[in-house]
Amino acid sequence: MTQSTDRKSSTLPSFPGTSFIGQEEEQAVLEVLRRGELFRYHGNKEHPSKCDLLEQHFAKHTGASHVLAVTSGTAALICALQGIGVGPGDEVIVPAYTWLATAAAVLAVNGIPIVAEVDESLTLDPADVEAKITPYTKAIIVVHMRGAPSQMDELLAITKRHGLKLIEDTAQANGGSYRGRRLGALGDAGCFSLQLSKIITAGEGGILITSDDNVWKRALMFHDVPGGERQGITKDEILWGINFRMPELLAAVALAQLGKLESILTNLRARKQMLKGGMEEVAQRKGITFRAIPDAEGDTGATLIFFAPDAAQADQIARKLQEANIGAGLMYHPDRSDYHVYAHWLPVMEQRTWTEAGGPWRWAQRDIQYHKEMCPRSLGLLGRAINMNIDPLMSNDEMEELIEGVNQVLDQI
Questions:
Q1: Cα distance between residue 66 and residue 63, in whole Å
Q2: What is the rounded distance in angstroms from the CA atom of residue 205 to the CA atom of residue 209?
Q3: Which of 10, 54, 68, 306 could share a disulfide with 208, CB 3.0–4.6 Å?
């Protein structure tokens, strides 16, 4: 079959939530506008706040005792770090493969990000995490990258052995699970993003969940000092905070999207299974392996990632897929900047600071050095990895055409 330029691409990047925006979101936004209740704590209180409703529904969705709606996934991470008490000189282990915001959130509370390897799951390698623990380690941020769960049993066991806190960055895996529990609900705090490219979206926004009363209280105060008083925290207890409050319009869209999450996940999982199944015979013949998924049942299905035998073949495959109008991307190349890969976090790698007085590293309790080759296993894996985002609305005919096109490319290698 000759590849045509009008093939429907498995688009990169993929925006699953936006594909499902419809009358529900429109109605929810108009309701807020017509009532004039743009701010969570102002307006006719005969109607429940959209932020309140979002928190209540998200608590039911995740099983968490406490939910806090905030302005972004990064805000959720910062609130979580404040919640568990990370401060100057505290080390926090983060994965070599995650968006820069994970490390930046640590820096925002004057902590020190320590970068650990990922394994074939492209999530934290528990063995390297344990090797990176020092007397100054306070916490681990586990990132469920590209919609798949991390190795939570092993990582939770490590935190228990060493008396550490664990935060789940669930920005890319909303709705996923591990051993039957929702991602984000297994650690001391879970953080979610509602940014445009996420599984459900309000354009921006974030959510923090926890079942720890103290973490909740501290995060609540930090995101909004008056909010702490509204929740019954006494003036003698109140700590200073900043404004990470979610606006009602954003919450209205997020609430409507949350009601569609299971449908989106069902579509994503079915299409990923179809794509992987259609590729398996050719992939095996070509020495291509698929990303390891620590709990396949808990995978959101948002992406399909596979590894070529070497980096040169991976680059060739990615280019040929793109030439065939098939959305795919090489996950790491040393000359192509991507803030998902630690080697490209230049502001962190070079310990750049906002003032001449220095940044968080001045509180480090030991010599901290970063360099681009410090996680070679991660770079090796990512350099062989090809990502294909899953389009939740592709028809079966379109999926079959996509599979045929992918297999044709693989057969050329």
A1: 9
A2: 14
A3: 68
d(C-alpha 260, C-alpha 32), whole Å = 20
Task: Give the number of other Cβ atoms within 10 Å of residue 331's Cβ.
Answer: 21
For residue 84, CA distances in Å to 49, 90, 223, 240, 284 come to 28, 11, 14, 16, 45
- CATH number of the domain at 19-261, please? 3.40.640.10
**Length of the chain measured in residues:** 413
Strand partners, 193: 206
**The overall pTM is greater than 0.85:** yes
Any idea which architecture 262-412 has in CATH? Alpha-Beta Complex (3.90)
**Under 8 Å between Cβ of 79 and 126:** no
Cα–Cα dist 152/179, whole Å: 9
Give residue 271's identity as a one-letter amino acid code: R
**d(C-alpha 379, C-alpha 235), whole Å:** 49
- Side-chain half-sphere of 84: how many Cα atoms within 13 Å? 31
Q: Each residue of 298-355: pLDDT tens digit? A: 999 999 999 999 999 999 999 999 999 999 999 999 999 999 999 999 999 999 999 9
How far apart are alpha carbons 279 and 407 in whole angstroms? 6
Active site residues: 198
